[in-house]
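Data card: per-record layout.
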Amino acid sequence: MLGALMAVYFGYHGLTGDRSLRTYFRLNQDLAQAKERLAVARVERHRVEKRVSLLRPESLDPDMLDERVRWTLGYVGPREVVVLQSARMMTPEVARRLAQRAAP
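The structure for this 104-residue chain is written out next.
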């Protein structure tokens, strides 16, 4: 009788609680999700670091500098066409200047 009660006791606590099998599988699932988010963050960081490296003084890319100056100041040449890839990329100042130039 005592053995059966002990088996029930340990079986119950083995399936529920802080160190149970259920918690183990949930933590493994959380770990897998965290690893996926880390992989996405690493890719994004690598992309940003690559763009930043193009603006460093020792390896300054003239095209990148021109792009950032135009983006920051909102300048567009009189015979240039601006193609925005995303609406979130356009700052309010750039939108205002483009609207002024497009108006007759």
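Known properties of this structure: The chain has two domains: 1-53, 62-104. Residues 66 and 82 are 14 Å apart (CA to CA).

See the next section for split statistics.
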